[in-house]
Description:
The complex is a heterodimer of chains A (about 280) and B (about 375). Chain A has about 280 residues and is α/β, with parallel strands linked by helices. Chain A has helices spanning about 25-40, 75-85, 100-105, 105-115, 160-165, 180-190, 220-230, 260-275, and strands spanning about 50, 65-70, 90-95, 120-125, 130, 135, 170-175, 195-200, 230, 240-245, 245-255. Helices cover about 30% and strands about 20% of the residues of chain A. In chain A, the strands form 2 sheets. In chain A, strands 1, 2, 3, 4, 7, 8, 9, 10 and 11 form a 9-stranded mixed β-sheet that branches. In chain A, α1 packs across α6 and α3 (about 100-105) crosses α4 (about 105-115). The relative contact order of chain A is 0.14. In chain B, about 40% of the residues lie in helices and about 20% in strands. Chain B is built from 13 helices and 16 strands. Chain B has helices at about 15-25, 40-50, 65-75, 85-100, 130-135, 150-170, 180, 250-265, 270, 290-305, 325-330, 345-355, 370-380, and strands spanning about 10-15, 30-35, 55-60, 80-85, 105-115, 120-125, 145, 170-175, 185-190, 235, 275, 285-290, 310-315, 315-320, 335-340, 360-365. In chain B, β4, α4 (about 85-100) and β5 form a beta-alpha-beta unit. Mean pLDDT of chain B is about 95; it is low at about 1-5.
Amino acid sequence: xxxxxxxxxxxxxxxxxxxxxxxxxxxxxxxxxxxxxxxxxxxxxxxxxxxxxxxxxxxxxxxxxxxxxxxxxxxxxxxxxxxxxxxxxxxxxxxxxxxxxxxxxxxxxxxxxxxxxxxxxxxxxxxxxxxxxxxxxxxxxxxxxxxxxxxxxxxxxxxxxxxxxxxxxxxxxxxxxxxxxxxxxxxxxxxxxxxxxxxxxxxxxxxxxxxxxxxxxxxxxxxxxxxxxxxxxxxxxxxxxxxxxxxxxxxxxxxxxxxxxxxxxxxxxxxxxxxx
Amino acid sequence: xxxxxxxxxxxxxxxxxxxxxxxxxxxxxxxxxxxxxxxxxxxxxxxxxxxxxxxxxxxxxxxxxxxxxxxxxxxxxxxxxxxxxxxxxxxxxxxxxxxxxxxxxxxxxxxxxxxxxxxxxxxxxxxxxxxxxxxxxxxxxxxxxxxxxxxxxxxxxxxxxxxxxxxxxxxxxxxxxxxxxxxxxxxxxxxxxxxxxxxxxxxxxxxxxxxxxxxxxxxxxxxxxxxxxxxxxxxxxxxxxxxxxxxxxxxxxxxxxxxxxxxxxxxxxxxxxxxxxxxxxxxxxxxxxxxxxxxxxxxxxxxxxxxxxxxxxxxxxxxxxxxxxxxxxxxxxxxxxxxxxxxxxxxxxxxxxxxxxxxxxxxxxxxxxxxxxxxxxxxxxxxx
Lengths: 276, 384
């Protein structure tokens, strides 16, 4: 009998699957879309580096069959900055979570975006800290229940696409884990973009977010995404809300601006011609 | 990265922090990530000026946490990397120093020590971060730390720090102090080709069979770079030889953490450097490091002139601690004097190694290091 090969086989590290993620989690969908994007672009996997931080999605770097690094909590962008500047030929992709990138790692995110560092950042936003059992984070909706907001969340949230746009990212998009085709297209676009690109993926965590908020299965969370998502391309990211009634998705920013690598190269040319 | 003009071969009058910059360039450092902090800022400024001239990259990060993370990233991409800081920044770096240890990353961390704790005295010298350098990140591990006591050594020991970090795949710290960092002295910079530069071992296994954390007999694994086709994984989690997480295996934890310690401990004879002055017939020994070793030398010379058989053991390597050398000296003398610009850190190690021999501690905090006369007085007191 002929052995069938999974279409994503070459993108995944042999022997590391099954993954650790729960039933109904969106992380596998994000990984699939990333693999599909690499496949569609026929990218040289030897020149792709996947960097992740700590959290459920942090384990993604262990599954991709590329050079990969699983950093300390919040530091994947800073680590990736070093990789990219040391070897500009590499395509360095950061895939991490909302807590990792925007709470403990928020400072690195805003500054890498400001510098227009040549990195592609994909954020799995599941509204909670999943790995530690469902505590509230910087994207937990107001009034939502989590293990550390037992009376409802009283913290306002970060609007990630608005933040990324304000910090200077040249490509900004948001999709949910339901929008696999559009998400894949956005990842492809980001991979081809010069400078700092950011994609937020609103992702279901039925175990630790849904269960506390009347959406105890992956299907129920996906139904929520399906019912309330509205595609509003190039609308004002400041108004791109995520509420129980509405999730604004789409591409919000797609501009050209000299990247850090380009400016660095130009500066280095000048430096070399000058006396010591 | 392409090699540009490196050579600065000559005798020059320069500042310690700048000698450190030139040492790094000579050792092959081509990536620096840092954050301004007194009294290490001149190293960042020097790197910002020099690195682009030799095809390297300087980046000023948003903080020292990011700086440390970035130099680890650059090292994994195959480029020798460094950061420089002082106490407050050193504290922030501790998190990723642990990551560098765990993922066996060659890199150099310079700490131009100032007065602490907290913001302390930014423009004043100190030797208060010596224990932090050894134990500051969580978990059990070993690092290497060197203590320059002259501007020449800011150059020489920075080169050596890179060589050791490349040899053992470990972060190496240069523990300077504000005086050595800001002092101007004449420095002899050898011609580039005469400087011994060590590069990390490359894997001999095929890209498919490469196990990034499988050690050779010297307990150090060869290191492939990102982008060379190995497609390997590295993680701060406890991992096996292939770099795959092993979060529940006691055996994996035992094997990895023990090796991370052993690769330094079992090679310590090759790593350690001390300098001995008139110790052959000495009855009292001063054990000192950094700028304090200079005043100590002066005190020892004065003591000899006064008829006291004194000698100096200068610790060039602070970590791993030169236990055997200290024990050997302590066995032969009646007393050991340890002057430090802190409230007593290395003296504890000396006491441990010296066993039965009396150890006298001489603390000094603030603007000035010990005066030779103060150390001489301490030497005299041991005679009573």
